[in-house]
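re: ur question from yesterday

yeah so i grabbed the chain u mentioned. its 335 aa long if i counted rite. heres the sequnce exactly as i have it in my notes:
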Amino acid sequence: MGSEYLAKLLSQELEAVIRARIPSITSLINKTIDELESEMNHLGRPIGSDAGAQLYLILELCRAFDKIFKEHLDGGRSGGDRIYGVFNNQLPAALQKLPFDRYLSLQNVKRVVSEADGYQPHLIAPEQGYRRLIESGLKYFRGPAEASVDAVHNVLKELVRRSIGETEELRRFPTLQRELVGACYHSLERFSEDGRKTTVRLVDMESTYLTVEFFRKLPQEVDRAGPENHPTPSADRYTDAHFRRIASNVSSYIGMVSDTLKNTIPKAVVHCQVREAKRSLLNYFYTQVGSKDAKQLALLLDEDPTLMERRQQCFKRLELYKSARDEIDMVAWSR
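ran it thru and got these structure tokens back, copy pasting raw so excuse formatting
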């Protein structure tokens, strides 16, 4: 009996109760630690103070953004299919709307052929008239070519905005977001300019050198139509039927070129814009950020002070719960 024995007995009883409660306490602590870890992941880990750590974090954020951007283009996320829509819908529709019916009207064909002949009318076939009609007509294709470049450029800019918003790690750094968007737009502008030059060059190439084989086949087709449909040049040289035949031949040639450009313009746009966006969208940003010092890097990684305070409190609580778990584990193993 006595107080010494009572103290020992109560200590044993208290220890037994504590040991019985350890599993539930441990479970509660582990659950709280998981919740704090999740909150820390949402808030983001603390930023290192040295330039190397800051630069590493920026590059990691860029890689996360670039991965999401490429997923949009390659079909892992929605949005990239809009580029195909430009080629499959907008470009063919724009080509069909070109005013070739008005351009190849009888009155305009007569005017162009007469001006091309100069003071001496053509004898048999108005070659200069043909060339002038075709070369001037092919310039109409520049509009749809440049419109395709602009449409894809706008899609790529929209995908950059969406990818920035979907990169969760970037949400805590608004300044870095703005710098990244600006650098990406700068790169896309450069790709767009290259795409514009290439597509316009494709159109100019068509007007620079005409496909001779197309016109060499025309007399053969007329011969197969029969003598009754093939009047002599002297009788047919200046009639409306003569100019309508010229308009028809030019229309067929322009249609052939249209079919060609319908396939080559998308190739040029993808090569100059989409492919380069996948390969080197962030190169300009990397060049810019690589030349910044620690103070400038810190400015890119600025945060809301409230968010920083919240992270600090969360970090202290997390360390406290981890320490408590370690102590409880020591008690559990000492049984």
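noticed a couple things. Residues 220-227 have pLDDT under 50 and may be disordered. also The chain has 15 helices and no strands.
anyway ttyl
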